[in-house]
Amino acid sequence: MCLLELQTRCICKKVQLFILLDSGGKRVAQSSRVVNGEEATPNSWPWQISLRYRDYPDANAYGHICGGSLIEDDLVLTAAHCVEFQPDPAVFKVIVGSHYRESSNSSASVQETINVIKVTYHSEYSSNTLKHDVALLELETPITPSDEVNTVCLPENRQDQISPGTDCFITGWGRTIGGGDAADVLQQAVLPVADHTTCRRKMQPVSKVYKGPMLCAGGQGKGGCQGDSGGPLVCEENGKWVLRGVVSWGTYMCLTEYYTVFARVSNYVSWIETNKMS
Questions:
Q1: 132 part of the active site
Q2: Tell me, what CATH number does 86's domain have?
Q3: Rounded Cα–Cα distance for residues 240 and 75 (Å)
Q4: Is 25 inside a domain boundary?
Q5: How far apart are CA 93 and CA 88, in angstroms?
Q6: 99 given a catalytic annotation
Q7: Total structural domains within the chain
Q8: Domain span at residue 124?
Q9: 75 three-state secondary structure
Q10: Over its length of 278 residues, how does the chain's per-residue pLDDT go in tens digits?
Q11: Of the residues 81, 99, 122, 132, which is catalytic?
């Protein structure tokens, strides 16, 4: 069952140290751009959102900075480092139903821009260690759930953890190579989940990986990059898609022999429940 089934319409069908912030369900096909990923089928990851930040001095221009995931009709889970520098919700907007990074390129009827009315990031988030790199965005208006725009399931609780070796998906509009350009269209890639000991040793030259708050995946030629931050790592489990990670950090040049590090969503199920009701 999906967490908070009465309030969250999760898609439960079986179908197919550098933070990754951009400086500037149901699957219909298989195929943080995610480095060495491939173009996703439009609206095949219906919980994926683009977080936009107001581009001063033009108060009407909002540029993509991060990804995120719809976890309720009016609630998005993203990374704390995407919003903690400016917690005023008025400077952010969320785009749902988007396939293109630049909304002007899209003619999708399901695409919608929604104002953010509340930003809540974890009170113990540390920009030095990137522990507890999670944040909630409350939307001004709820989505209308459909096959193209919908919510993703959450883990049941803190003990509900994904097994190492599981193949999961990362999605985002991040750079396609370290130091390169951001992707024009949504990208996806399969990343195997790593065990903590292996990841900790591999990432030691970069930064410390904390066992509870963090989860590692990738390290086999694919991974996240700047612009993917806040976006999802989802795994297909028992016929439903479960949000297991929030893109957090990696190496400066997005080297794919290293892992992409995520905030481990199961660690924050209680935090989400508490803060969405506050």
A1: no
A2: 2.40.10.10
A3: 19
A4: no
A5: 11
A6: no
A7: 1
A8: 46-151+269-276
A9: strand
A10: 222 222 234 444 333 254 555 544 433 233 233 556 688 999 999 999 999 999 766 777 899 999 999 999 999 999 999 999 987 999 999 999 999 887 656 556 789 999 999 999 999 999 999 999 999 999 999 999 999 999 999 999 888 899 999 999 999 998 866 677 777 899 999 999 999 999 999 999 999 999 999 999 998 777 788 899 999 999 999 999 999 999 999 998 888 889 999 999 999 999 999 998 76
A11: 81
